[in-house]
Amino acid sequence: MNAPLYPTYARYDIAFERGEGAYLFDTDGRRYLDFATGIAVNALGHCHPKMVEAVKRQAGRLWHVSNLYRIPEQERVAAQLTENSFADAVFFCNSGAEAVETGLKTVRRFHHGEGDPRRWRVVTVEGAFHGRTLAELAAGRQEKHLAGFGPSVDGFDQVPFGDPEAMKRAVTDETAAILVEPVQGEGGVRPMPPGYLRALRGIADAAGVLLFYDEVQTGMGRTGKLFAHQWDDVAPDVMAIAKGLAGGFPVGACLASAKVAGAMTAGSHGSTFGGNPLAMAAAGAVLDVVLGDGFLDNARRIADLLNRKLGSVAAAHPGIVEEVRGLGLLIGLKCAVPAGGVVDALRDDGLLTVPAADNVVRFLPPLIADEGHADDAARILDGVCRRLGG
After folding, report:
1. pLDDT tens, 212-233?
2. Is 99 helix (H, G, I), strand (E, B) or coil?
3. Sign of the CA dihedral running 83, 99, 288, 367
4. Average of pLDDT values for 226-246?
5. Which of 62, 142, 173, 363 has its CA 20 to 30 A from that of 187?
6. Where are the beta strands (DSSP E) in the chain?
7. Which burial class, exposed, middle or buried, applies to 163 when counting CB atoms under 10 A from its CB (0-12, 13-18, 19+)?
8. Does domain 50-290 have CATH number 3.40.640.10?
9. Torsion angle in degrees (nearest 10) through CA of 249, 243, 133, 69
10. CATH placement of domain 16-34+293-387
11. Do 16-34+293-387 and 50-290 agree at the fold level?
């Protein structure tokens, strides 16, 4: 039966009816180890008790009032984010696309306020994915996403991956910002080369432009630190986050330094639903857990273990898996056979993963994953590799 939905997804013929921790259960009662996590969204797995308690409590009190009024829950979450990041101010929205769009508006508005409105262009990196709005498709400049949506929105330039000299040449008197993912997720789980973010910081400072990180997929502990750029200790001026921020409740946020955020005056931007009390209850619960003592330490420990185990499987089956790459619990398996077939075979054996560009299978475990989950994932991958003839 065809449901009355836009045909924009090639959906698998599976429907899930409940989740528990690192597992999903379909309508036939079959259990799956979820290393897809809603595409890096379910940071605390499924139905984490602190999240359930927080949302239930808030649902019985107040859902929505709009940003015409103070929202104490929003102020609390903003304080948690700024106290643990470079930022001084936060704008809450509903998705990663909205968070990136907010950042794009912010960088233009900043230069306008500085008396230099000629600075409006943004330089991105080849292989980038920044969202599905018309502007963000132009920013990513991937033909498979742009096809049929032309003409492409102007205002974006692009340089080769990991090439600081090319970036330096691309920055002009019209450039407002450099936009980059510390690790390209959709682009094939490709971490930026060592020293690259620091080079970009230097280029931005020298040219008087802003450094804008897209941490929609890499943020909220996914790489073992709250934000991926913290591994390099190179702060941006603006940053977009979403996905894991509320563990499955739709929330996005744009973070900025005080000087940059100050350009966004009353009426310059807005969101009807963004940061409402129910969303903030979910986000606050996630942050309380992720920022708790030892949580990220344990996530890093499991990430190291899982990467070693997957590396061993890859070494034993080079005809199937060419490389294991990524950072923390954002792991990519570069395949020697079609990645889609590997994803299908893993799913058939009870392990959910996600495809990415460059013929990559993404492993995106919940941050609550343990040794047993790592063992099971490696065992299932090994079985699939054997069955596929590797």
Report:
1. 999 999 999 999 999 999 999 9
2. helix
3. negative
4. 98
5. 173
6. 16-20, 23-26, 31-34, 89-93, 121-125, 156-159, 175-180, 183-184, 190-191, 210-214, 238-241, 252-256, 321-327, 330-335, 351-352, 354-356, 360-363
7. middle
8. yes
9. 50
10. 3.90.1150.10
11. no
> Exactly one of 214, 249, 309, 382 is catalytic; which is it?
214
SS3 205: helix
Give the pLDDT confidence score for residue 342 in this predicted structure.
Answer: 98
Tell me how far apart the alpha carbons of residues 281 and 205 are, in angstroms, rounded to a whole number. Answer: 37
User: How do residues 39-74 score in pLDDT, each as one tens digit?
Assistant: 999 999 999 999 999 999 999 999 999 999 999 999
**Token duo for residue 273:** 């639903």
- pLDDT tens column, 330-382: 999 999 999 999 999 999 999 999 999 999 999 999 999 999 999 999 999 99
Domain-wise residue ranges, the chain: 16-34+293-387, 50-290
Residue 339 is classified by DSSP as H
Residue 129 is among the residues annotated as catalytic for this protein: yes
Locus of tokens 């199937």: 320
Question: What is this structure's pTM?
Answer: 0.97
Clarify whether 154 is annotated catalytic: no
360-363 sheet: strands from edge to edge: 321-327, 330-335, 360-363, 354-356
- Residues pairing with 321 in the sheet: 335
Residue 144: CB partners within 8 Å, gap ≥ 6? none
Mean pLDDT of the chain: 97
CB 260 within 8 Å of CB 238: yes
Given 225, 243, 309, 334, the catalytic residue = 243
Q: How far apart (Å, rounded) are the C-alpha atoms in residues 131 and 104?
A: 12
Tracing tokens 């929003």 back to the chain, one arrives at 74
Q: Which of 129, 156, 161, 212 is catalytic?
A: 129
- Residue 60 falls in which region: left (phi positive, over 0), alpha (psi -120 to 50) or beta: alpha
